[in-house]
Amino acid sequence: MTRLIDAPRRGDVRFNRRTFLDALLAVGFVSTAAAIAYPVALYLVPPESGEPDTSSVVAAKSAELKPNSGKVFKFGSRPAIVVRTTDGDVRAFSAVCTHLDCTVQFKPDTSQLWCACHNGTYDLGGNVVAGPPPRPLETFVVNRRGEGADEEIVVSRG
Amino acid sequence: MSVMLQQTTAWLEERFDLSGVRHFVAEKGVPIHAQKVWYYLGGITLFLFAVQIFTGILLLLYYRPSAAEAYESVQFIVTKVRFGWLIRNVHSWSANLLIAAAFAHFFSVFLLKSYRKPRELTWASGILLLFLMLGFGFSGYLLPWNELSFFATKVGTGIAGGVPIAGHFLLRLLRGGDDVTGATLSRFYGLHVAVLPAMTTALLALHLLFVQRQGMSVPLETEHRLETGEPLRQMPFFPNYILRDVLAWYVVLAILAALAAFYPWELGTKADPFAPVPPGIRPEWYFLAVFHTLKLLPSHILGIEGERIGIVAFGLVAAFLVFVPFLDRRASRGARSPLFTVAAVLGLVYLITFTIVGHYAK
Q1: Which of A29, A133, B144, B305 has its CB 3.0 to 4.6 Å from that of A99, i.e. a possible disulfide?
Q2: Is B81 in contact with A47 (Cβ distance < 8 A)?
Q3: Full-model pTM
Q4: Is residue A21 part of a domain?
Q5: What integer pLDDT is reported at residue A2 of this predicted model?
Q6: Which of residues 38 through 97 in chain A touch B, CB cutoff 8 A?
C-alpha cells in the first residue's frame, strides 16, 4: 500500500493521502449533486396530460351551421373547426395551424381556412394553398346524429 | 484545473480588486471554546432556508393559487408529477425543521447573551427574521387549501381581528374580505412567494453582513479570559469550519430526506367553507403555545375581553424580544445578567409545556 501511495506519477503530480481524500470528498459532493439533480430533472418534465385523447365530440347543431360558414369548437383540449361548404357539405379539421400552432378560422369571402398569425391559407380539403404551413390540417370524420331540428354534427378522430 | 482557476482569478483581478475578498477568506476565523457547538444552528437555519427557496420555486411550476384549483394542483404534484411527492414533502418538512432550528438558534444566542454590544442590530434583525419565518409558516399552511389549514387560518386571522383598534382592519387586510375565501388564498400566496421572500432577503443580507463584519461572538467567560491576556484560540473558517458546517448540513439533509420519504405530509381533504368545522382543529405546532394560552384565558379580565389582553401581551413580548440587547444593560457592560437568563429559561419552559399541553388538549 505504501508503495502505491508514495509512487510518483506523471511528472511531479503525486498520489498522496491528501489527493486521495480530496478525491473522496469530490465523489461525495458529486454524488449528492447527482442525487438531487436526478429527481429535480424528472420533476421539471411535465407529466403526460391526464386528459384522455378525445375521440368524438358534438361540434354543432346541423341547423346552426349555415352554408359557407365555419365554427371553431373544443376537441379535447385543442381547437377544431367544422365548416359547411356552399354546396352543403360538412367537413371538420383540427383548427391548429401546422405552422406555429395558431388557431385557423373560416374566411367566407374566399371559402378558405385562414391563419391570421402568418397568413397561412388552406382549402376546404385542409390542403395548404398559400403561406408558411408545412403540412395540411388534420382531417376529422364527420357524422350526423338525430333528425330534423335536433340533428347534430358529430366529429371524431379518423 | 488549478491553472484554469488561477487564470480566472487573474482575469477577475484585472477588473475588480479582489484583495478584500481574499483577505476576508484568509482571515475569517471561528473561536474555539466550550460553547462553540451553538455556532452551527445559524448555518443550519440558513441551509434549510435555501432548501425552502429551491423546493418552493419547484412547487411554483405546478401549483395554482385559486380556491378551485389549489387543492387539486397539490394533489397533482404529489400523485402525477415524478418526484412531486418528494419535493412537496421536503418543502413541508424543511419548513418545520427550519422553524425548530431558528428557535434553537434564538434561544442559544439568548442564553449566551451574544446580543450584547456591539451585536444589538444582529439580534434585532434575527428576531425580525424569526417573525418572518413564522409568517412563512402561517401563509404557506393555507396554500394546499385543505380542511385543516382552512379552519386554522380562520382561527389565526380571527386572532388578528382581536388586536385593539386596528383589529377589524387587520382581519380584513389578511383575509381580503370578511371571510376566509379564495381572496385570502390569493393574498397568502402573494405574501408567501413575493412579499415575505423580499423582506427576508433584505433582512437576511443585513443579518449575515453584521455577523461577517463583527465576527463570531464569544461567551462572557471566554471574553473575560481574553481580557486577562489569554490568547483567543481560533479555527480558520476556510476550509476548516466550512467543512464542519457542510457536515452538519449533510446530517440535516439526511434527516430531511428520511422524514420526507418515510413520513409523507398529509394533504387531507379539500376545504369546504360550508362544511362544519371538524374536531381537533389546531394550528401548526409552533403556534400551539400561543393558541393554547389564548384558549385558556377567561372570557373577561377586569371587564376587558381576555383574548384581547392576551394578544396585547404577546405583542409586548414580541416587542420586548426585539429590544432585549438595549434593555440588558448589564450584559452590554460585560457583566452577568441572571434576570435575562431566567427570562429566557422561563420562556423556553413555557413554550415547551404549552406546546405539549396544547397538543393533547381537547
Answers
A1: A133
A2: yes
A3: 0.86
A4: yes
A5: 47
A6: 39-40, 42-47, 50
- Domain of residue A37: give its range: 2-44
* Length of chain A, in residues: 158
Q: Are residues A27 and A67 in the same domain?
A: no
Rounded Cα distance, B75 and B85, in Å: 9
pLDDT tens per residue across span B331-356: 999 899 999 999 999 999 999 999 99
- Measured between CA atoms, the residue of chain B closest to residue A43 is B82
Query: Region A77-89: what's the mean pLDDT?
Result: 90
Does A44 sit within 8 Å of B61, measured CB to CB?
Answer: yes
Give the chain A residue whose CA is nearest to the CA of B243: A25
Residues in CB range of B3: below 8 A, 6 or more apart? none
Smallest CA–CA separation between A43 and chain B, in Å?
Answer: 5
What's the pLDDT tens digit per position in B277-298?
A: 887 788 899 999 999 999 898 8
Are both A60 and A130 inside the same structural domain? yes
Tell me if A85 is assigned to some domain. yes
Q: For residues A52 and A69, is the Cβ–Cβ distance under 8 A?
A: no
Report phi then psi at A92, rounded to 5: -135, 140
Specify whether A90 is located in the same domain as A113.
yes
- Chain A residues lying within 8 Å of B82, measured CB to CB: 39, 42-43, 45, 47
With a cut of 90, say whether residue A134 has pLDDT above it: yes
More confident residue, A66 or B128: B128
Q: Could you say which of A32, A39, A47 has the minimum Cβ distance to residue B86?
A: A39
Task: Say yes or no: A101 and A152 in one domain.
Answer: yes
Q: How far apart are CA B328 and CA A77, in angstroms?
A: 66
From first CA to last CA, the distance across chain A in angstroms is: 72
CB contacts of A45 in chain B (<8 Å) are 82
Task: Tell whether the model's pLDDT for residue A13 goes beyond 70.
Answer: no
Distance between B250 CA and the closest CA of chain A, angstroms: 9
How many domains is chain A built from?
A: 2
Q: Which residues of A touch B61 (CB under 8 A)?
A: 43-44
pLDDT tens digits, residue range B119-145?
999 999 999 999 999 999 999 999 999
Domain ranges of chain B: 34-226+233-271
Length of chain B: 362
With CB atoms and an 8 Å threshold, state whether A43 touches B58.
Answer: yes
Euclidean distance between CA atoms B142 and B171, whole angstroms: 16
Instruction: Name the minimum distance, in Å, from the CA of B41 to any CA of chain A.
Output: 22
Average pLDDT, chain B: 93
Domain identity same for A14 and A62: no
Please state the φ and ψ torsions of residue B60, each to the nearest 5 degrees: -60, -25
Q: Which residues in chain A have their CB less than 8 angstroms from residue B84's CB?
A: 43
d(CA B220, CA B225): 9
